[in-house]
Here is the input.
Amino acid sequence: MSTATEDRIDFYPTHEADGIRFRRGRPLPFGATIVPNGVNFSVFSSSADSCTLVLFNKHEPRPFAEIEFPREFRIGDVYSMIVFDLDYETLEYGYRFSGPWDPAAGLRFDKTKILSDPYARVLGGRDVWREQPDWNDIYQHRARLSFDDFDWEGDTALEIPTKDLIIYEAHVRGFTADPSSKVSAPGTFAGLREKIPYLKSLGVNCLELLPIYEFDEWENNRRHPETGELLLNYWGYSTVGFFAPKAGYAATGRLGMQVDELKNLIKELHRAGIEVMLDVVFNHTAEGDQRGPYISYRGIDNRTYYILTPEGYYYNFSGCGNTLNCNHPVVRNMVLDCLRYWASEYHIDGFRFDLASILGRDQNGAPLSNPPLLESLAYDPVLSKCKLIAEAWDAGGLYQVGSFPAYGRWAEWNGKYRDSVRKFIKGELGMVGEISNRIQGSPDLYWYRGPTASLNFLTCHDGFTLRDMVSYNGKHNEANGEWNNDGANDNNSWNCGWEGESTDPGVNALRRQQMRNAATLLFLSRGVPMLLMGDEMGHTQGGNNNSYCHDNAVSWLDWRNVEKEKELLRFFTKLLAFRHAHPVLRGNRFFEHRDYVGSGKPDIGFHGTRVGQPDWGGASTVLAYLLCGKHATPQDNDIYIAINMYWDGLPFQVPPASDGKSWRVAINTSMRSPEDIYDSAGGPRVDSAEVIVGGRSIMVLVA
Amino acid sequence: MALDIQSTVNANTARIALSGELDGSTAPKLRETVDKILAGKPAQLVLQVEKLTFMASAGLRILIFAKQKQPNLKIYLVKPQPAIVDTLHKTGFYDGVFVTDAEPAGA
Here is the structure.
C-alpha cells in the first residue's frame, strides 16, 4: 500500500530553481509539515506582493537557496509550496515578504528582513540560555522542523476535576538554577524533572509554568547603572514564537532536542499524578512597537497581527509595546491552532492566559460583550477538557474579575481574593463580610459560575513572595535599575514591626504565624488554590516585588531552605494533605447555608466568639465557621475554623460536635512546630466548651 | 566528522558497530543500514556504541523509527558513553532501549 501512496503524482516535483526541486503545496495546515518526499510550507499574508522561501543549513550564516513562490502557488492570501530532498535534521527556513512600506496604512514590509514562520514549531538562535547571540546574524530566530515521533507510552492529559486541583506556579529556570538544587542540569526541563518527587511529596497536583514559548532572554537586556549586574528578560512574558518551546530551557537545546526534553518532563509529571498548565501570552509579541525588531508578524502582515492606531502606530494595552489583534479571524485561528497543538502534541492539561482581557477587545481595542476568541476557546472540541484560566485584566485599564466572559468554562485569577485576604491578615478593619465571601469561593463574584471559577491565590510571580509579604511594608526594587519606580505599590503587606530581615524573636515568631495564617486561609477556602514556588520554604526576594529581570539569586530558589525552613515546609505539606483528605473543602457548588442532607446542621454555619453569633460589624476582626462534612460525603468530617485577626487571644465558644464525637485540634497557627498542625484526622482532643485562639491566629478543629 | 558502520546479521540478532560521530550529516547512512536490517525482521538489534563519541537528534530518531516500524524489536546499546546516556535520560528515550555493558545473553 505504501508504494501506491509514494507513487502518487502529487508527491513529485514540477519545478526546479537554484538546484532545488519543488511543486505547488497545500494551503492548509499553515507552517512546515513533513509530507511524503518533502516538506509543505504554507504561510499567510493579506497584503504582500510576493513571498520568498529562504532555506539555510543549521547555523550557516547565508542561505543555501531562496525560492520565490510562483504566482500560481498563491491561493487566496496563502503561499504554499512543497520542497523536495531537504534534510529535515539540518534545515532552517524563513520567509522574505515584499509589499508596500506605508506605516500610516499599517504596512511595514521590508524585503531585506528574513522572518520566522508564525507557526514554527522549533526555533533556533537562542539554543543555550544566556549564551551571547551572534548579533550580526541576518536571521536571529530560525524556524526548524519538528518530529511528532515521541513515545508517550499511553500517556494522556490527566483530567483531574478542577475542584481538586492544587496549583504550583513555577519558573522553569528559577526552580533549579541555583546550585543548591543539586540537579544534574540546573535551570532546565530536565532539572525540573529531577524535582518531581519533591512536588509529589508536597502534595500539589498541577504545575503551572511561567512562559515556556520561545522568547528572547536578551530582549531589552541592560546593565544595572550602579551594580553593573546584567538584567535580562527572565520571566519571558514576550513571545517570539507561539508554537515553539524555549530552547534555552532544555539541557538538550544545544542538540535541538528541546521538544523531546519537554515532552519527557510532561510524561513524567503525569506519571506522578501532576497536571501541567502553561502560562500563555497572547496579548503581545516580542516585536515591541515601531522601534522594535522584525521577527515575524510585523513583516508578514502587520495590520492583521497587531491592533493599530488610526495613524498606524501600535496600541499598547499590554504595557509591552504592541497588542496582538486577537479578534481578527486569522489571528484567532492562530491562537486556536496553537493551543490545540499544545494540548494534542504536548498533552498539556490547561492554560492560564496572561492579561486575558486583551483577548476580549475588538480590532479597535474596545471591549466586546461576546468576544469570539474567548467563545471559540470555551467551545473548542480539542480543548474541551483543558482548564482555561484568565488573568482577567489588562494594562489598558480593563478589570474583569467577576465579569470575564466565561461561557461556563473560564476560571479567573481572583485578584479580589488576594487583596481582601491580605488586608484581613494584616488586621485591617471592615473585612469580615468580604472574607466570608472569599472563603466560600466568592459567590458574590461567581454566583452563576460556581466556586471553581475562582482561582484563589495570595502570591504569584508578580509581586511579593509570601515571606516578603510579612517582612516588608513597601517594595524594594532598586536592583531593577529603575529607581524603585517599577512594580506595584498596593501590596497590602505588613512587616510585623521591622522592615526586612530581623533578628528580633518576637518579629520572627509573628511572621511565622502570619505565613501559616495566610496558608491556612488559602487551602481551606473553596475554589482552586495556587501556591507560588518557594512560598512553602520561605523564599525571599529581599522585598523585590517585580523580579522580571533577575536571572540570579533574587529569583532562584535556594534549596537549602528545605532544611532551614523544614517546620514551615512540614506545615504546608500537612495542610495540603488536609485539603486532599476533606472533600468538604473542595466542593464544586456553592454553600447553600441550609441542611439538604438531613445531617442536622447546614452545609456552612457562621459563628463568632459565641456560637451562632457572627460579628459582621466594621470593627470586627473575628470570624468562625463550621463546615458539615456530610454535605460532601457520608464519611467526611465536620470542620470548625476559628479565625482571630485581633492582636490578642480571645476565647471562642465551640459548637457541639455531631453524633457524640469529640473535636480534635487539626491546626493551631499560634503554636510552634510540631503542634501547629496534625495529621488530617486531628491531634489532641478538645473537651472544653471554649478554646482560646491566640492573637492573630487560626484554630481548626475536626470531628 | 565521519561515522563508521559495520553490520552483521546472525539468526535473530542484528549487530551494528558504530564509531565516530552520529549527527545530521552521517545519520542517513545509518538509517539506510537499519532499513535493510529491519527488512529481515530480527528480534534484537545490538548497537556497539563504545566508540561513538556523539549522537545528535538525528541518531536518536533512527532508533525511534526502528521501534515504530517494529514494536517488538529489542534494541540494545552496548557501552554508550556517559554523554549519550545523559541525553537518552533527558529526552525520555532511555526507557525504550536496553543499555548494557556487555552483549545481551542469547545474542
